[in-house]
Structures are given as structure tokens and as C-alpha cells.
Amino acid sequence: MASASPSAEEWLLENGGNIKVLSKEMRNGRTAHNVSSSSLRKKSDRALLAGIRVGFLRRFLGNLQEVLLGTKLFIFLVAIPFAIAANYRHFGSPWVFALSCLGLIPLAERVTFLTEQIALYTGPTVGGLLNATCGNVTELVIAIFALIQNKVAVVKYSLLGSVLSNLLLVLGSSLFCGGIANISKEQKFERKQADVNSLLLLLGLICHVLPLMFKYTGKSNPELTAFATLALSRASSIIMLIAYFGYLIFQLFTHRQLFQEQQEEGEVESDEVESDETPVIGIYSALIWLVLMTGIVALLSEYVVATIEAASDSWGLSVGFISVILLPIVGNAVEHAGAIIFAFRNKLDITLGVALGSATQIAMFVIPLSVIISWIIGVKMDLDLSLIETISLGLSILITSLALQDGTSHYMKGLVLLLCYFVIGACFFVSWAPLNNTNLGFSSEMVRL
């Protein structure tokens, strides 16, 4: 990598001293989620701060510029103070819910940006683990607050919706748009990466199917069946977490070449990629901002969980539809946009890493971790997603695996995945499930039409 300019060196020295700046090896610590999110960032003009003589003030304003204005989604940050004001001024709950959802969109990208900045100081190993863990922090925080309020159904719905959204909506729209934009080219990708993610998703599906089978085979003794389902779910969650940590070792250490974007012959690294590997704020500043951003995510997530039922009543939509469809669209908006951008550029390895990697992280890390957290705080959450949800998940994994089995893509595959998502969305739109913490809330009142 070319050496940094004198002004950049001065900036780095002011913000933290010795820095581990690595080239290709550093990128091994970045997940596809980070590469995708970087497409939504914009470079800040540091010349605007050159006239400020006070070093501390210059660094502080520089950090504000990078953190708050360094994203193309900065306009959505305006929704955060409006959401807080709407809550304290006791505006309608639907307004609080909508503003909180809008505020969460840029925060997800900013958390990814800050973890990546920290990774540039800690090296590829710690950085890769940090990026892989914080990739879906929004979904995890919402799940924790919902569990604290004993809204198990919301947790199951939202996490299921996140997996379905990544597999069908994010991947489908990316393959469709990428296929249209590159209609004269044959789009190829590394099939081995897709195979690994598909295997993990199928393992997660088994862990959901077995508790469902318990429910239907143990109707003669409901209490014993409920106890066995809960015990099986907790044991399965531990196994899923072991599998996910094995996946991290596989992805970051032993087979990391499978998860890197393959450069074509003659392709040179762009200045944009090189600049992504140079930190723009100090490590201590990044840590402080990360804690602050996570705190705001937690606050808005609390608002979302507290107002979701009121928004459901006001809008005439079921909580299931809002949780399965609307919340995941908000949570996945950043990676959705990034995946489409890279599909346009015919970089499907990054697109698949975003969609399949995020789905795998939700299915094999966030969901079982939620079960363990609920166990710790005394809330009974199992892996039984009920019949419609489990079938939707299983068919989504199956059709995605079939679409990716030959290592090539075209717009028709993306169109089919999108249409499958619309069908599932229609299913939840016409269903009305009361929030009940047993069996995910489904009863004889399920059908609204």
C-alpha cells in the first residue's frame, strides 16, 4: 500500500499513535457485511477543519464530521431526536414507532463503521471477530428488550423475518438487479461459500423442526411436552452456538480464502478500497462513539418494542406482519442497499456474503443466543416457530440453496426469490395472531379474512 500523505499521517498520530495498517491481510478481517456497508459511506473534507488551531477541538469536530456526516444515510439521523421528543411529549405511539425505525437505519451502518475502525487498530483476527459479532447488533438489541418485556412472540417473529428478508428479499433483489444490469454477462460466484452457509441454515432448520414435532406428537400430555420442548430448544441452542463459533474459525482462519472477493485478472485495487483500510478516527474515540451509538440503538429499540402493539392497532396490521416484514426491512436496509450496489458491479461474492452471511448469523447466533438469554432472565423461549413459520423458513432455505447450486446467476433467479418473499409477506398480511407466548401466539383466531 502506498504511504499515507503527510496530512493523513499527522491526523493518525493525533488520534492514537501506532496503527496496524495491513493491506490484503487486513481485508481478511473484514466481513462482506463491512465491505457492503462501506459503499454507503462518503469521504469527508478535512480541509474544512484545517483552520482550527486548537488540536482538541479540531479532533473533536473531525470525529463529529466522520461519524455523523460520513454516511449517505445521515439524513435519517434527524429522526432520532424527533423519536425521543415524540416519546417524552407523549405523541401517538405509531409516530414513536415509525421515527424509531427510521432512526435505526443509519445507526446500523454507523455501528459497522465504528467496529471496522477499531478493527484497523486491533488487527485482522480481533477485528474479524468483532465485525462478525456486531454485524446484526440492531436485531439482537431489539430481541433483548422484547425478552425483558416478555414479548417472546415479537422476538421469534422479528428474527424469523430477518432470516427470510436476507434469503429472499436482499438476495432476490440483488440477483434481479445485478442480472438486469449485467444481462450480457454470465455472473459467477464462489459456490463453496454458499454451500457452507446452506449447511448451517439447514442445521438451524432441524433445530426448529424437532420442537415443532414434539408439539404434535405429545398432545396427550401438554405439560410434559412443553417441558421437553423447552429443554430440547436450550440444548439445541448450545449446539447452534458451537456450530457458529466453528463457522467463525472456518471463515476467519482455516478457509478464509473462500469468503474473499475474487479479483479478476488485471484488476487493480481502487483508492476507495485503500482508503477503507486507513483509520479516520482514533481507537479511543471509536470506542466512545461505539458505546454511544449502541446506547442510542438500545433506546430506540426499547421504543420500538414498547409501541409495536399500538402501531399494529393503529395501522390495522398484525404484529406478525410488522415483525416479520417491516422490522427486518428496517434492520437490513443498509446491507440491502450495499448488496444491490455490488450486484450491479458484478461482485456477487460480496453480495452473497452479505445476504447469506447475515442470514446465517441471525439463524445460528442471534436466535440461539436469545434462547440462552431468556433462560438466564427466567423467560421461557423455545425454538418452536409454529407450523406456518417453520414451513416458510424451510422452503426459503431450500429454494435459495437450489438457486445457488450451480455457481451462476441471472435475473430470473432473483425474480423467483422476490416473488417467494411476496407470497410469504401476503401470508402474514392476511393472518392475525394475538400475542401469546406459547406456540408463538397462533390460535383459532389466526385468519382475519
Order of helices and strands: HHHHHHHHHEHHHHHHHHEH
Radius of gyration: 22 Å
Residues in helices, as a percent range? over 70%
Number of helices: 18
Strand order of the largest sheet: 1-2
Largest sheet: 2 strands, antiparallel
Structural class: mainly alpha
Topology, number of strands: 2
Short description:
It is built from 18 helices and two strands.
Task: Give the tags.
71% helix; 449 residues; single chain; two-stranded antiparallel ribbon; disordered C terminus; mainly alpha
Description:
This protein is mainly alpha-helical. Helix content is about 70%, strand content about 0%. The chain has a two-stranded antiparallel sheet with strand order 1-2. Helix 8 packs across helix 13 (about 285-315). The radius of gyration is 22 Å and the shape is globular. The protein starts with 5 loop residues before the first helix and ends in a 19-residue tail after the last helix. The model is unreliable at about 1-30, about 265-275 and about 435-449 (pLDDT under 50).
